[in-house]
Amino acid sequence: MNKYHVNSTVIGNVKYDSKAERNQHLILQQREREGKIQALHFHGIAFALGVSDKGRAIRYTPDFTYIEDGQLVACEVKGYRVRDWPVRAAFFAREYPEWKLIVVEV
């Protein structure tokens, strides 16, 4: 159990941070098989959001990225809103306006 009181789960060689994240992946995989989305990635793309006041790179890796109807989509599964999430989401929207950010709340 992690600090947000969720249990990670493993299927095959894929480790999910939560059951909700695993369930969302299964849904998106089905949608990809049906041809509704393309280029599905799980924790595969890291986005540079800038540099902190301490000189460290700020990065964001969404849970999933894919293409739907020609639109680039970043999908985040949230059961608990962490303190820095609103700031990170705002930076992402500012730096990557061509991406649509979807938050699946469970």
Structure commentary:
A four-stranded mixed sheet has the order 3-6-7-8, sandwiched between helices. It has a single domain, classed as Trna Endonuclease, Chain: A, domain 1 (3-Layer(aba) Sandwich). It contains two helices and eight strands, in the order E-E-H-E-E-E-E-E-H-E. The longest helix has 15 residues. The two termini are 17 Å apart. The chain is an alpha+beta fold and 106 residues long. Helix content is 25%, strand content 38%. Helix 2 links the parallel strand 7 and strand 8. The model has no long low-confidence stretch (mean pLDDT 87).
- The separation of the N and C termini measures 17 Å
Roughly how much helix do the residues carry, as a percent range? 10-25%
Strand order of the largest sheet: 3-6-7-8
Domains, number:
1
Beta-sheet strand percentage? Answer: 35-45%
What order do the SSEs take from the amino end to the carboxyl end, as H and E? EEHEEEEEHE
Largest sheet: 4 strands, mixed
Q: Which structural class do the helices and strands define?
A: alpha+beta
